[in-house]
Amino acid sequence: MSDPTITVVALLVTGYLLMAAEIFVIPGFGVAGIGGFICLGVGCYLAYEHFGPAYGALTIVLVMASVTAVLLWIPKSRFGRDVVHSSTLADAYAAETDLAPGQKGVTESDLRPAGFARFGELRQSVVTEGEFIATDSKIVITQVQGSRIVVELA
Fold first, then answer.
1. Of 36, 124, 129, 144, whose Cβ has the fewest other Cβ atoms within 10 Å?
2. What residues make up the domain containing 70?
3. Which pTM was predicted?
4. What pLDDT score was predicted for residue 76?
5. Using CA atoms, how far apart are residues 45 and 49, in angstroms rounded to an integer?
6. DSSP the chain
7. Across 30-50, average pLDDT
8. Sign of the four-CA dihedral 28, 31, 37, 43
9. How many domains does the chain have?
């Protein structure tokens, strides 16, 4: 292999390794991820510069396709399912729609004025109008406003 080939391959491999380290070892979008993108970009540029437009364009297409494929594959992998948050807002509101004013429950924590209460099998975050309610007190729902559930002593 010639000197430009070694340089291009080394930059591309370093870019992929830095991006892998960012994804699997160092969480967040930091120095390793930015460094990986820079190495991939410089490797593509040097491939275009030293090997001509045909191989340069091929390198760019292959790098973009591989990065896109990995970014689409990771959330579907076993590792990705553990890391990527998959619940939706619809799931969050599904439990809230079952509660209505007049329902009775028991506090699981002190309400000062916010805390937790249990309504049957459902544990829910609740608030009062400002008064303190102790743990294990019987309460009743007075208002349901989206995700805000207002309660008072029963």
1. 129
2. 3-83
3. 0.52
4. 82
5. 6
6. --HHHHHHHHHHHHHHHHHHHHHHTS-SS-HHHHHHHHHHHHHHHHHHHHHHHHHHHHHHHHHHHHHHHHHHHGGGSHHHHHHS----HHHHHHHHTT--TT-EEEESS-BSSEEEEEETTEEEEEE-SS--B-TT-EEEEEEEETTEEEEEE-
7. 91
8. negative
9. 2
Q: Do 69 and 20 reside in the same domain of the chain?
A: yes
- Give yes or no: residues 69 and 125 share one domain: no
Residues 11 and 53 in one domain: yes
Give CA–CA dist 44/37, Å, rounded. 11
The reported pLDDT for the residue numbered 80 is 74
Shared domain for 74 and 111, answered yes or no, is no
Cα 100 from Cα 119, distance rounded (Å): 11
Tell me, what CATH number does 105's domain have? 2.40.50.140
Provide the mean pLDDT of the chain.
86
Taking the chain, what is the end-to-end CA distance rounded to the nearest angstrom? 82
Residues 117 and 109: their CA atoms lie apart, in Å, by 7
Among residues 39, 56, 83, the one where a domain terminates is 83
